[in-house]
Amino acid sequence: MNRYFKSAYLFGVLGGLLGIISFFTLSFFNEDPTTLNLIFGYVIVPISIYLALRYFKDYSNHGYISFAEGMSVGFVAYMIIAILSFIGIYLILSFDSSLFELIKSSKIDTLVTSKETIVSQVGDNSYEATLESVKEMEISDVALNDAIWKIVPGLFFTIIISIILRKNPN
């Protein structure tokens, strides 16, 4: 079982650390690094999954990988990325509460400046509920949101990459 997940652990940890580093670095250049970090996640997650599956196929499984093996290795890789990203962002925001307050105020400002557009699309009640939700936001909400947006595309890319790399022995 360990051979199945050696590559997943390796590239999952690498992707998770890159996610943490990107959040930390982006916090110096932008008062709300969450949006740019999500975009960076859309790049690093598929690359990490591809490398994990390719490494498993080439070095652990004699050049073969089934769809199920690809899904298993990919799942472990993107879950490790998401968990490490959650922990890293949570710790960064816990130690730097002013950054969390900047993120929160930025999200509130975005909602306030876009009120007319949002209300026309979803209605006044939804807008008010969203605004209240953002005002009550906690550090764990920011970290969990980032983790979720590592998992969702991770599943999507794992399916695609597993299909592309699939090669069963004859």
Automatic annotation (TrEMBL):
Record keywords, A-Z: Membrane, Transmembrane, Transmembrane helix
Stretches that traverse the bilayer = 7-29, 35-53, 73-93, 147-165
The answer to whether keyword Membrane applies is yes
Note the InterPro entries from the entry: DUF4199 (IPR025250)
Indicate yes or no for the key word Cell membrane. no
**Which protein, by its recorded name, is this?**
DUF4199 domain-containing protein
